[in-house]
Amino acid sequence: MPDTLPFDPSRLKFGIGQPVPRAEDPTLLTGRGRYTDDISLPGQMWAVMVRSPYAHGVIRGIDTSAARAMPGVAGVWTGADLVSAGYGPMKCAMPLKNADGSPIRSTQRLPLATDRVRYVGDPVAFVVATTRAEAKDAAEAVELDIDALPAVTVASAAAAPDAPQLYDDIPGNEVLDFRHGDREAVAKAFAEAAHVTKLSIRNNRIVVCAMEPRSAIGSFEDGRYVLRVGCQGVFGLRNQLANEVLKVPPAQVRVLTGNVGGSFGMKANVYPEYACLLHAARELGHPVKWTDERSGSFLSDQHGRDHEVEAELALDKDGHFLAVRLTSFANMGAFLSPVAPLMGTANFMKNVQSNYRTPLIEVSTRSLVTNTTPVSAYRGAGRPEGNYFMERLIESAALEMGIDAVELRRRNHIRPDQFPYSAASGSVYDGGDFTALLERTLQEADLPGYAARKAASEARGMLRGRGLGNFLECTAPPTKEQGGIRFEEDGNVTIITGTLDYGQGHWSAFAQVLHQSLGVPFEKVRLLQGDSDQLIAGGGTGGSKSIMASGAAILEASALVIEKGRDAAAWALEAAPSDIEYEPHAEGGQGRFTIAGTDRGIGIMDLAVKLRGAQGLPEGVPNTLDVTHVFDQAPQAYPNGCHVAEVEIDPDTGIVTVDRYVTVNDFGVMVNPLLVAGQAHGGIAQGIGQALMESVSFGEDGQLLTGSYLDYALPRAGDLPDIGFVSHAVPATTNPLGAKGCGEAGCAGSLPAVMNAIVDALSGHGVRHIDMPATPERVWRAIHAG
């Protein structure tokens, strides 16, 4: 029977809220993606880095003579060569201050080490040759004369008076002594509390392990530096590279990015290799390519996490929260990345509040340099950690006070009638429904059936535990973002954005926003995101803000297209602009301009074609519907939710199996629920990996002991359960779409859910806390120690 229902925009197949499959996937799944290593330029040469084998040492000399004489070698450069060329250092851009008001002590990292090496993998030279094999052979022939020095790899150890000093101008290895909160008021709250819970928590260091290792091609074309590289945003990377390192106007630098195989924060910044490639390309007159091997990635890619935390929660006699206090050491690695100090300071502070009424927060973090790979953002960048600390404190406090842990959460949730809620962290939450969301999660997790499942596990000699991960995270605030719309000659419409998809599926989601707001056919939408020459603004992708930033930019740009289109349609239809109306979803598959009260009109795609071929347009009639627009900014948003994990533990081996997993989430308006669920699944997988198996280890001499997949475990499909995903949405009021961001929330809920479940399962053996990762050995020892 034919569909005779009247047209309803809510039935849009490709509109906002529809689970549209990713438009990117057919290309990627059939191997037609174009990653950096897939590119080969005419005349291209290869670079290989020479890295320090010592974690700490003084460079006495670098002999490159043998390498220069080897077949195919076009050049060998050291740090002295790049200093002579005038390149500047990479440094931290965070405007954080010490407790005494003085600025952060930033390291000044040159592209190649010149005086001292500070971690295993620190680049000291590089070789360029005709082939990769020739470059690799020559790199191995470079002779290093380095006097080894004592090393320090743990942040708290770096703070000791007798610790090795990495920098003469950074006394005590301390780059930042961060403090937030009213110390006296917090101390008073703890002194007067009926109960205080304390936990020592280790936030284990993580190797990012992106699917695509870092790769880049440097060239010098028509007097400009051109870098082809996988990154998280070409506009910001170009500016950092031009302003800080190359010391040239940004217009002299172009950054191009194709497909990117994952990043999670790691590929956001400039790395030493990029300046080296561009320098060699200019010197040699040839493009120069470099692709890291996985062993090199373990050493040179920025790591994530790595904090030592004393967490404390003060409660009154009824279990109401009075104050939370975090006292931490944060490991920065050997150099400060542009955002390294953010995670253990401001992001701890903003996120430890979670969705609870907590009147007072104090965060004191000492950030220290160590002889380890530099640390930077990793999915969540302090947000999952803040939630993890609070949730572990709640579980411990509930046990110690004899209060049900779920009831303790209910008792302290921010209530709907308290919004907007001014948190002690300084955030202003615009809305949420935290207790109702928790209740929905318990329902979805089949709370009544848990006792039977636990009994069944015990009958098989297994331990079973259930854990909650209630979370709220503060996304990064959307900053200036481009929302260009261009009507192409081939009939397609291009969105130009400064965010960048490195696995998220931006094309589909952005096309849905444009389709909904402007009526452009979904299949006609294209996405341009990886060319800095096309951008006038761009905040890149990070902090779970892309749909809020780019979505808002597309909405505003669409409104400008319609405004231009009224003048153009008035000309085409021979009417006054004031008589022109626009219907984004008129029947016929495209938006349509019409004369009010008539059936005379013209489709937006047809109007774009008509303008392109028009000659001698009257004054006031645009010759194109194209717009270039910059969305200004918006407040951050507050995605929240609850995860429930059930684990089963074999007491004979310590092996933990995540058996059941349910999530209920408030991500506000979901443009594409299918993509949102995928983002949640990915974050949960990474959270389970950190909770159960992932951890970086260094020897006392600074050597990386977990330098390959023989030593470093990643979760596989068989390690993960089916993941239930349910939405309990309260639209945000802080951005036009009502979205809240979702990219990092999976980690924020999974770390506490899994670890709380493990502690619950082990509680019968006297275990009250266990640090991540809960490896079989660590769990087995905890059982027997208990």
UniProtKB/TrEMBL annotation:
User: Start and end of every Aldehyde oxidase/xanthine dehydrogenase a/b hammerhead domain?
Assistant: 30-150
Single GO molecular function: iron ion binding
* Keywords, sorted A to Z: Molybdenum, Oxidoreductase
Which superkingdom heads the taxonomic lineage of this protein's source?
Bacteria
- Tell me what this protein is called: Carbon-monoxide dehydrogenase large subunit
Query: Which residues span the membrane?
Result: none
Which N-terminal residues, if any, form the signal peptide? none
Q: Which Gene3D superfamilies match?
A: Aldehyde oxidase/xanthine dehydrogenase, a/b hammerhead, Aldehyde oxidase/xanthine dehydrogenase, molybdopterin binding domain
SUPFAM superfamilies cross-referenced by the UniProt entry: CO dehydrogenase molybdoprotein N-domain-like (SSF54665), Molybdenum cofactor-binding domain (SSF56003)
| Provenance organism | Falsiroseomonas stagni DSM 19981
The UniProt record lists the keyword Oxidoreductase: yes
Keyword Oxidoreductase attached? yes
